[in-house]
Write a structure and sequence with these properties.
Elements lengths: L7 E5 L4 H12 L3 E6 L12 E5 L5 H15 L4 E4 L15 H29 L3 E6 L12 H20 L5 E7 L6 H7 L9 H9 L6 H13 L9 E3 L6
Parallel strand pairs: 1-2, 1-4, 2-3, 4-5, 5-6, 6-7
Bound molecules: NADP nicotinamide-adenine-dinucleotide phosphate (NAP).
NADP nicotinamide-adenine-dinucleotide phosphate binds next to helix 1, helix 3 and helix 5.
Length: about 250
């Protein structure tokens, strides 16, 4: 098993769902974790291992403060995961509320920009290696009716990540936009509540639940750690997808 003891990871959107599961799995592997969400995460562990912070990814100053607090607590950040995200508005674009669409882009795109910027500056300042993982989705790479905001936002995350990779070539920074697979979180519960009029492919997600075909957060966490720290993963393309746990 890859030795990741003492590495330092930041995870945004870690109050529940994938982010909380990643944080718990990382801590169990000896990784020090700084976690944030609007609702302060409640990760167990002593101050030498865990930093729970309340921070909204849409707030540039809050993200800068959160990064500074992580560096002050742990000395450095090796891995930054921009995981915070939302799905709404769901439904045909013609019916979407412009304010809700704008809020979506603010969280899923501007939030990734804020996290990426503070981490890139940190890596450049301290020198050495750093890995930035921006959580993407299959919806970045395939269109879904009813998810125009989500598809547009995740496609933007993909392209932003590719631009960062070009800009930071020759520094120690490596970046990937990672489609994590399908994990049974609140976001999946929200998808299953949609009517076929809002989201025509809802049955596929109901079937996934019926067959319990999800990836566990522990499975996703192990692959993220390998992507970040296994030297064999260094040549992984910027846009990447994790395998599903159950094939
Ligand atoms: N679940 C899946 O199958 C799946 C598949 C592909 C990609 N993803 C991606 O994986 C990521 C996590 O999804 P999930 O399924 O775990 O969703 P989730 O269960 O809805 O959790 C979302 C997390 O993001 C946080 N968050 C939302 N807005 C925020 C903001 N403005 N600032 C800081 N944190 C914020 C939430 O905490 P607060 O509400 O406390 O802020 C929560 O911790 C998302 O980027 C999603 O698009 C998920």
């Amino acid at each position: 098993m890859l030795n990741v003891t003492g590495k330092v990871a930041v995870i945004t959107g870690a109050s529940r769902g994938l982010g909380a599961g990643l944080a718990e799995a990382f801590l169990a592997r000896g990784v020090k974790v700084a976690a944030c969400a609007r609702q302060r995460p409640a990760l167990a562990g002593d101050a030498a291992e865990v930093l729970n912070a309340s921070a909204d990814v849409t707030d540039a100053r809050a993200m800068a403060r959160f990064c500074a607090a992580a560096v002050e607590r742990f000395g450095r950040v090796d891995l930054w995961i921009n995981n915070a995200g939302l799905l709404a508005p769901i439904g045909p674009l013609r019916d979407n509320d412009p304010a809700e669409f704008a809020r979506h882009i603010e969280v899923n795109v501007l939030g990734v920009f804020h996290g990426s910027q503070v981490f890139i500056r940190h890596v450049r300042e301290r020198g050495g290696a750093g890995v930035l993982l921006n959580i993407s989705s299959g919806a970045a790479r395939n269109a879904y009716a009813g998810w125009s905001a989500y598809c547009a936002g995740k496609a933007a995350v993909d392209r932003m990540s590719e631009s960062i990779a070009l800009e930071e070539t020759g520094t120690g920074l490596r970046v990937h936009a990672v489609a994590p697979g399908i994990i049974d979180t609140d976001m999946q519960a929200l998808i299953r509540q949609c009517s076929p009029e809002q989201f025509p492919r809802v049955q596929k997600f109901l079937d996934l639940k019926a067959s319990d075909a999800f990836s566990s957060t522990a499975f996703v966490a192990e692959r993220m750690l390998a992507l970040a720290f296994d030297p064999a993963a260094a040549d992984t393309p910027v846009l990447t997808s994790l395998p599903l746990e159950h094939g």
